[in-house]
Structure prediction request, 295 residues.
Amino acid sequence: LVIANMVKNGYYSPVRFHSSEYEELRVLMANRETVVKRLVSAVNQIHRWVDIVFPELRQVFKILTCKGALLTLRLFPLPADLCKLSPDDVIKGWQKYMKRHSGVRRAHLLIDLAKQTVGSKQATHAYKLHLEQLLEEHDLATKQLQRIEKEARDVVERIPYAGKILAITGISSIALVGVLGESGDLRGYAHGNALLRHAGLNLTEASSGKWKGQMTLSKRGRPRLRHFLYLITMCMVMNNQEFKALHHHNIKVKKLKKMKSIMKLCGKLARLLVGMVRSAAAYNPNKIFALAAYR
Prediction:
């Protein structure tokens, strides 16, 4: 009876079926999220392994996932292996796989630290096997991530209005893929506020009876869409001159807190995207943002 009453009163919205391109983007981005979690897990476990077995490696390589650090872990996984080698042997091992190796100074430092390490010297065979598996998982996840992102870029190129959106400074192809995969065709939205409601970024009031609560974000929508709209907004605040001016105006003139300004700019971004798509117009910062008012 409740459902029938809602249908009678028109409290419903029709289901929108997406075309093949948008469905492909949604599946690819869901797969990408899974692969990224595996990659982050592998990286965290590599950091843990280094802290246990060879913590001094951080003095040689500040970033343990750089090419030189990963190659060193592959070629000389244990400090005991490095103690048996000379700096020339380490450099020759690097040169087989890297044209620009880490240098003679780092080779000397690596061997000296290996001789003085405070890392665990027990169960070396098990630690070595564990590291090999972690590196294999890291390589597999990295390869899969690159393939997924390439496929996603190929699909987004088939969407007619994607080129105009990507011309905006601060919007990357992967971030746009994340938005389109969750929102579907932006031409199906009557206004940018509809996109905000779909993402759960619309304002709601938590009230009950005589008690009146504060205005908060509903968060009743697509969490992945909220994630990518937020990321795009942050990138545009850092790299896009128009959004940077708007953010500065919100903080200095309107006295908004930084996070409130970011949320306000998320709404501006949603209205910008839907407006550009529906009008088939190119990005015009002077027309859309009226920068003269903020300078």
In short: The mean pLDDT is 90. The first helix runs from residue 2 to 9.
